[in-house]
Amino acid sequence: MVPRLMILETFLVLMMLEVFFMSLTDSSKDISKRQVLEMIVGLIESSDYFLIEKGAVFKSGLFSKREEELIKDLAFSINELFSSFCYEKSAEFLRMIEGKSDQYKKVKIKNIKSPASKESHRKTFGQEVCRIDSSERIDDLVAEESRGVLERARFLFSQLSE
User: Fold this and answer.
1) In the Cβ-directed half-sphere of 118, how many Cα atoms lie within 13 Å?
2) What is the Cα–Cα distance from 84 to 64, expressed in whole angstroms?
């Protein structure tokens, strides 16, 4: 049985998406690549990625079948990036502690594991993912083992029509 709160949250997210799509006037019927990316990141950050998987975001008719498939693939890649994100493994963090004492490293690692720090780094990561085509920092935030997923996401993003 699905908890009532989860059903209510899903309903509210679907309503917000409907309002978003309805807010696009007839003169601006198209949604930009950036808006698609922000929508994907927003749904992933709010744990509503399943709405993309189930196709709930495509009910507006704004996307062609080709774009729907691209968006699903892009969302899958971005979800993978979020799932594997660990600031401790990022090049940015590793450079910060490079050549430092073990004591310094332990303190820094302890600091980044605090809930507030994790939330802050995850928020920054989301902002950088929204600029996947122009952000240089995203390369420093993605762990080496996720580099292929980042490149795939960039490629998929580039394939979306403006």
Assistant:
1) 8
2) 30
Q: How confident is the model at residue 11 (pLDDT cuts 50, 70, 90)?
A: low
Task: Return the structure tokens found at 17.
Answer: 């998406």
Identity at 111, one-letter amino acid code: N
CA dihedral 52, 58, 60, 65 (to 10 degrees): 160
Confidence of residue 73 (pLDDT cuts 50, 70, 90): very high
Instruction: State the Cα angle at 23 between 18 and 25, rounded to 5°.
Output: 130
Instruction: Give the residue from 76, 82, 90, 93 showing the smallest Cα distance to 126.
Output: 82
pTM recorded for the entire structure: 0.80
Measured CA to CA, the distance from residue 101 to residue 25 in angstroms comes to 58
Q: Which helix or strand (DSSP H or E) is residue 63 part of?
A: none
- Give residue 19's pLDDT: 52
